[in-house]
Amino acid sequence: MKKTELFTTFFRIGLFTIGGGYAMIPLIEAEVVEKHKWIDRKLFLDLIAVAQTCPGVFAINIAIFIGYRLQGIRGAVCTAMGTAMPSLLIILAIAMFFQNFQHIPWVAAMFAGIRPAVVALMAVPTFNMARKAQLTWFTAWIPIVSALLIWLFGVNPIYIILAAGIGGLLYGYVCGTLKDKK
What separation in angstroms does the CA of 90 have from each of 52, 94, 103, 127, 155? Predict the structure, then answer.
């Protein structure tokens, strides 16, 4: 695999994904795991978890981790640039011309129609990640309570991440899965 292939793969993903990083997950998985088989599904899921906990744009984070895993620093730069460049170019074009078109009824209607589709594009990867993470009805309360704490009570997501990490660590010790690995 060449660095140009990394760039063009992630450029295509960035170009055809509306809705941000979470909407990119199925496309990245299809390209990186299924089509090219650059990494396996388990590593992909782990990279998603790490990318979510890092500061910055999720799509760029996951692209950097995959690029670095495959081609080191240069691969990380290629995948990051490939992911970011389509959005940069599209936003630049919109910023240059949107003021002239935003009052046209069909343009406003088009953007109003895109909003619900973007919600669906973000919901699908969420449900797929829950399935792949082997979320059960017994453990489903964790993301539900976490989302409600953030949404209804304004709890800082950092506290949720810290609590989940500590809870997972304690669970590992209580169930014995971490005792055996010392």
Answer: 24, 6, 19, 28, 34
Q: Which residues, 6+ apart, have CB-to-CB distance to 128 below 8 Å?
A: 25, 26
Query: What is the SS3 assignment for 21-82?
Result: HHHHHHHHHHHHHHHCCCCCHHHHHHHHHHHHHCCCCHHHHHHHHHHHHHHHHHHHHHHHHH
Distance of CA 47 to the CA centre of its chain: 10
Amino acid in position 70: L
Residue 139 has phi, psi (to 5 degrees) of: -100, -5
Whether this model's pTM surpasses 0.70: no
Identity of the amino acid at 169: L
Residue 75 has pLDDT above 90, yes or no: yes
Helix (H) or strand (E) holding 9, with range, is helix 3-15
